User: Which sequence fits this backbone?
């Protein structure tokens, strides 16, 4: 049953709650868009305040299939990490009294994703996160599940060892 009392007939269903952002963002309407995502520039600074940054799922990014309305869309580890590097460079610049100049639009970040789906999955490599793309390769198959498990173990081990600069 939906919140308005309607019932939808179905054989299979999956309920996905909306990504609504952190409570403090909900209480700061001048910082967020209608979906409670922080509106950011390509520097990942908020549109409203230069000293507020948002990356990953917190950042509202324009995507082509929403007629250029900024939305919060799930972002995998690689683009979130790229956004965080750009934000970190800009924060360092601000601390030094310099102008933040590192920038990259979300759509222009390269796509490097392994989408796991149980015992199967898809690996994707593309020149841009969002269309239009000049080059993209998608490789489906069960090897992606094994790769994802291996990568997770590698990533956790390198972090525990303090080797954060390894790929």
Assistant:
């Amino acid at each position: 049953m939906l919140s308005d009392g309607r019932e939808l007939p179905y054989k299979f269903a999956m309920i996905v709650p909306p990504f609504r952002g952190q409570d403090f963002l909900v209480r700061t309407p001048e910082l967020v868009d209608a979906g409670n995502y922080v509106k950011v520039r390509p520097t990942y600074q908020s549109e409203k305040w230069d000293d507020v940054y948002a990356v990953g799922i917190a950042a509202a990014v324009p995507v082509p299939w929403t007629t250029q309305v900024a939305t919060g869309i799930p972002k995998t580890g690689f683009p979130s990490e790229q956004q965080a590097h750009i934000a970190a460079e800009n924060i360092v610049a601000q601390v030094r009294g310099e102008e933040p100049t590192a920038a990259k639009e979300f759509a222009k970040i390269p796509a490097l994703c392994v989408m796991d789906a149980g015992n199967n999955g898809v690996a994707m490599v593309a020149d841009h996160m969002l269309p239009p793309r000049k080059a993209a390769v998608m490789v489906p198959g069960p090897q992606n599940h094994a790769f994802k498990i291996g990568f997770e173990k590698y990533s956790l081990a390198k972090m525990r060892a303090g080797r954060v600069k390894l790929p």
About this structure: The chain has two domains: 16-107, 110-161. Residues 110-161 form one domain.
